[in-house]
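Honest question from a wet-lab person: if I give you the sequences of every part of a complex, can you actually get the arrangement of the whole thing, not just the pieces? Trying it with mine:
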Amino acid sequence: MKRALFFLPLVLFAVLALYLGFGLTRDPQHVPSALIDRPVPAFDLPAVAGVERPGLSSAMLAREVSLVNVFASWCPPCRIEHPILMRMSREGDVPIYGINYKDKAPDAARWLAELGNPYRAIGWDFENRVAVDWGVYGAPETFVVDRHGKIRHRHVGAITPDVLDRTLMPLVKRLRSEP
Amino acid sequence: MRYVLALLACLFAGPAAAVLPHEMLADPALEARARALGQELRCLVCQNQPIDDSNAPLAADLRRLVRERILAGDGDTAVLAYITQRYGDYVLLKPPVRVDTYLLWYGPFAILAFAAAGAFVYLRRRRPEARPAAAPLTADEEKRLAALLDDGGPR
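Yes, you can. This is the full assembly:
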């Protein structure tokens, strides 16, 4: 018994070291979303001038499982993930909606004309009125919304093929099978 | 001396706030409230900087949001609740005291109490109460002692 007590501080230290060591492996830039399992905030954004897509409102997101992608022409990682969004829209995997984040309309229009437009509808959020309600803190961010218009997942940063195949698409499939 | 003064001046220089003149509220009392709240909210882009000190565009958006809520008549806690609803507890530089944060807030004190209790028990055990009292001198030893004291001892 006495011997066990003697080792207690060492054990406590080991537990603390493991716990803090695990903390070091986590990415501090990855902030969990406060909106998981909550309905998308009510909004109605206008279309981007010069882009042939309607604007985006919360009502449009309550029909089927969809992705909402926050993007901007000034954001380099958005350019990286763009080909993946294009491929998804070509293959019709899942509807993608866009929120154009703090972007000048002509810049966004030029960007989409040059790289292609994977979005069904795009809301123009030049003043960060709506994205702030979604808890967006940078672009790109991608939300998975279920058929009831509830936010179920947020991905921060560019969508890579790995993220798509291992996280987003399996989740979309699972949400589709939900009632 | 001049260098010492310059160094002292550096020491007391406050951090420059990033709040821009056009962002400020006309009412100084409301602006003061906004500043106090701005020091409590984390800028999520340059983490560990409050939104008032950050030049990130998102920080400017949050400063605007705080001022809009204040103008809408929200109290300080309501403004903070409004922001945390969107950005989570992480946006607060001072985490709230709740059941799930008790370990964070009181854990260090618990560890300190634990260590103090351990140290107390350890020191108590080492106390020399068990040591036998010194035996009284024998008659022979008394005589030798008296002799030594009498002649001042051997030099």
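Two things worth pointing out. The mean pLDDT of chain A is 92. Residues 2-24 of chain A form the longest helix (23 residues).
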